[in-house]
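Ligand: coenzyme A. Inputs:
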Amino acid sequence: MLEINLTPFPVLKSDRFTLRRVTRDDVPGIYNMRSNPEVMRFIPRPLSQTPADAEAVFNMMDEKIEQNAGLNWAIALREQPESFLGVIGIFRIDFDNYRGELGYMLLPEHWNKGVVSELIPIILQFGFKTLNLHSIEAIIDPGNHASRRVLEKSGFRQEAYFRENCFWDGQFLDAVVFSVLEKDLF
Ligand SMILES: CC(C)(COP(=O)(O)OP(=O)(O)OC[C@H]1O[C@@H](n2cnc3c(N)ncnc32)[C@H](O)[C@@H]1OP(=O)(O)O)[C@@H](O)C(=O)NCCC(=O)NCCS
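Predicted complex:
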């Protein structure tokens, strides 16, 4: 079975960004994202109603790192590591099958500037070569065209389309599963 060790926490860098550990100072940024219906439009999770809700999200992220169960990074400008643009991570890991799940979310002012497209290759390199994952999946709402586009640009392929498999907010939602294998890239 796969085991991972997230201590010391892996700080990664791309041309424009630093991926660092999420800290309690990021709670206002997390709140701005998670309380914004536009950001959460395709994410079947509750909107944060208060900063305390966002703090609970931070605590969950932090515990996952402490437990070596999965990780989210805060996205910061490369030269301003305390800045906060959003989060990206391999936030869920199926250890038996060496498979990780990729997720990402940005504050709207940073959309469509190539942020996530620049970061996915760095995360895939880390996921396959450092964490030793065999495959990485991403699950999206079929209407989330920006998310589909970044995945396809990064080498993910559509692998499944689940019809109405997710009951959220009184509706049954479809889900599209994308994946990439290590051997697709390296
Ligand atoms: C999805 C998200 C992370 C994308 O990140 P990003 O850094 O803005 O993405 P990029 O700028 O790297 O690339 C976006 C691509 O989608 C395209 N795109 C954006 N909106 C689109 C739309 N409505 N229809 C079709 N393509 C669209 C852009 O043109 C770009 O493609 P291009 O490089 O070929 O021009 C961002 O939109 C976001 O945070 N959304 C809210 C949270 C969310 O939905 N997260 C994903 C959950 S699965």
